[in-house]
Amino acid sequence: MSCGDYVCRERPEGRRLRGNQAIKPQNGKSFVQYLRDSLIADLTSAGKFDPNSAVTVRAELTDNQLHGLGASTADASLAARLWITKGDRTVYDKELKEAHSWPSSFVGMIAFPEAVNQYTELYSALLLKLYVDPEFRSACSSP
Question: Which of 31, 126, 134, 32 lies closest to 92 in space, CA to CA?
Fold first, then answer.
């Protein structure tokens, strides 16, 4: 399986928490690139990544929210529309969504690291939702 184009509906800037503090993508990349890199890492570790494969996964990041300003609770959401194509034929087309909320703190030294952890965990949770989707599994295995 290979990875095709990944696009984002939003500007690729960091997610704001408080003041000027922000969660920014790793290595100056975009969040949609982070999603792509995470998928490639998972496929590679499972022995399923082949950059020359006719089976291609593409994605569009459709929601990317972080509300880490709350003094007692914070939340984040992430959604992506994913397509799998085999040659010119689309065999999978679905939007997946994931959201978390967690206890927060007024104290930034506590709230900021927890927001980073919770927010980045959304990417793993969203991809897990993809991997266990019976339609995804069927699309990957059908000829």
Answer: 134
- Looking at residues 51-65, what average pLDDT do you find? 89
Query: 95: which residues sit within 8 A by CB, 6+ positions away?
Result: 62, 79, 80, 81, 82
User: Quick check: 13 and 104 in contact, CB under 8 A?
Assistant: no
Distance (Å, rounded) from C-alpha 119 to C-alpha 18? 15
2-141 — its CATH code?
3.30.160.150
CA distance 19 to 2: 39
For residues 75 and 87, the answer to whether their CB atoms sit within 8 Å is no
Between these two residues, 20 and 43, which has the higher pLDDT value?
A: 43
Task: Indicate the pTM of the whole model.
Answer: 0.82
Percent above pLDDT 70 for the chain: 77
